[in-house]
Amino acid sequence: MTNSVSLESLIQKLPEGRVLCIGDVMLDRFITGEVERISPEAPIPILRIDDERTMLGGAGNVARNISSLGGNVSLISVIGEDPAGQEVEDLLTDVAGLDSHLIVEPQRLTTQKSRFVSGNQQMLRADKETTEILSHEAAQILLEIAAEELAECGALMVSDYGKGVLSDAVLAKLINLARSQKKPIIVDPKGKDYSCYAGATLVTPNRRELELASGMPTHTDTEVVDAAARLMEQTGIEGILATRSNDGMSLIQRGAPAWHLPAEARAVFDVSGAGDTVCAAMALSLAAQGNLHDAAKLANAAAGLVVAKAGTATVLIQELITSLAAHPVFDDENIMVQVTEWQNAGLRVGFTNGCFDILHNGHRSLLQQARDACDRLIVAVNTDASVRKLKGQDRPLNNEMDRASLLSSLKMVDAVVLFGDDTPLRLIELIKPNVLVKGADYQENEIVGAAAVKAAGGMIVRARLVDGLSTTNTIARMRNGDA
Q: How do beta strands 259-261 and 249-253 pair?
C-alpha cells in the first residue's frame, strides 16, 4: 500500500478544503434481482426484482465523494422539472458539507441511468436524458453563481459527461475565471477534442479516453507518456492524470518527469464511479493546498478502495486513513461504519476469527474458503492477552499488531479487527455478519455466535481443514527439533 508518512498532514487538512464542482448531475438507479428463467415472449432473461436503489451520479457523485473525504463543496448543475430532478435535490440534502445550486430547465430531462443487475452481473443499462446545450439564460445564471462561489473555494472541479451543461463557451469562461484567481482546475473530460479544456491544470482521462483523444496507443508506460505529451501540446492543457485500471495511474506534467503509480486495489468489484472518486480526491487535495504528487497518491489509494464496492460508491476519510496506516486494523466503531456501508451496498459480509500466531497453509485454506463464501471478509484476531489466556503464558510468539498486519496484507482479507474477550460473541453480535466461518473440527452447535447469526438470517460455513496443520503442533515440533 501507499506509504502514508507524506500524506498524514494532507489528510488532516482535507476538512479545510472547499471545492467548486460544476457539471452534469445524474441519478443512478440500480435495480437488482435474480434471473431464474428465460422469457416465453422473447429470448431474454426475466429479472425478478428484489431491490431498487438510487444514488447521485456524475457531478453529484463527485460532490458526494468530496464530502465523504471530509471536505466542503459547492455544486452547480442543471436538472429538469421532473420526478428525477426532485430525487436529485432530495439526495443532495443528505450530503454533509454541500451547498447545491441547481438550475431548473423545465424542458430538460434530468439525466437518469438505470442499471439492471443479477448477482454481480450488470445485464442492461437504460438511459433517459437531454444532451442539448443549456439555454443562454441558464448558462448566464450558472456563470454568475460560479463567479460568486469560486471566491470561497480552493479549486474548480469540472465534471463533464457531455449532457449539455458544459458548452465550449461555458468551459472557456469557467477556466478563465479560475485562472484569474489562481485556482487549480481539475477536469473529468468527455469526447475526443480536448481543446475546450485549454488552460486546465489537470485533465483525468482513463486509458481508452487518452487513446481516443490523442490518436496514439496507450498500452505501455512509454506510450501513455507520449500520448499525454502530444495531447498537452495540441490542446494547451497543463497536466494529465491518466487512470489505467490494473496498471494504476500516470501523472504527466509539462517540463517534469512522468510519474507512474501502481494500482492499489486488492479486489475489483465495480468500477462504476471510480473516476469520480479520483477527481474528488485530486480536487479536494489541491483545494487543501496539497501538491500534485501527494494529491495523486491520495487519489490512487481512494480508487483502490472504491472499486471494491458496488455501485457509484464513495470512500470515507476514515477508510482512507485506515488503508494508509502502517497497521491497517479497524476498531469497533470503524468496523461498524465499514460493515454498514458494505451491507447497504448489498454485499454479503463474512466473519471468521482466531489467534493466527504462525500463519500456515491451513490458515490460508480456511481464509480462502471463507472469502469464497462472501463478498467481504472480516477476520477477528485475539489480542495478546486473550491468546495467553487460551494458549498459555508462552504464547503468542508474534504480537497482535504483527499478526493483524500480516493478515490484512492477504488479498482474501478485507478487514481485520482485534478482540480481547474470551470469545468473539460480542463482536459477532455487534457486526451481524451474513456468513460465519469456522473450521470443520467444530460442530455447528459448538461455533460461538452461530445461533445469533442464524437468527438474523445468516448462514454458517464449516471450512475443510488441511490435515496435520496447526500452530500448536508446529510449535511443538520446533521445540522438539523436528521442524
A: antiparallel
